[in-house]
Amino acid sequence: MxxxxxxxxxxxGKSTVAEMFRELGAAVVDADEATHxxxxxxxxxxxxxxxxxxxxxxxxxxxxxxxxxEVVFNDPAERRRLNAxxxxxxxxxxxxxxxxxxxxxxEVVVQDVPLLFENSLQGxxxxxxxxxxxxxxxxxxxxxxxxxxxxxxxxVLAAQMPIDEKRxxxxxxxxNNGSLDETRRQxxxxxxxxxxx
Length: 197
Hints:
The chain is α/β, with parallel strands linked by helices. The chain contains nine helices and seven strands, in the order βαβααββααββαααβα.
């Protein structure tokens, strides 16, 4: 079994590339899905976030991730507090899903990990794939596709390692500045290299 780490900055198109790998036959374990799972009401993650940050971050019985995001993206100390709660739970969830995929016969598991290089996790993987988009394109996608304000989009990118610093750290770089067909062609080239013969 090969474990591939997939990463990229916010708005780089990582989810699109993950879906292309899934279509080619990879099992995909998604950190965003993991985060939703560990924030779910009644879980230890939910209880820990409420205990640490307060009831004002609960809306309609769920963690108000937008409100919490506004706090943590603008304050590195608050971000560290949240990450100390969430990251271990996310890693555990992803490890469990990866084990299930392997037990189910998966030969390639792609873990979608937004902060792979920030957290120096590359040693866990047989290969790493960076989805690259120019910062201006990342900002435009965050505004158009996720409804963020320009200021919030800039803050999200500022909280991450600059994407140009990630490029030399990756084993494979998929340039996602162009068309979907161009991206798919690059994903297929990576797949031909990483899939078991």
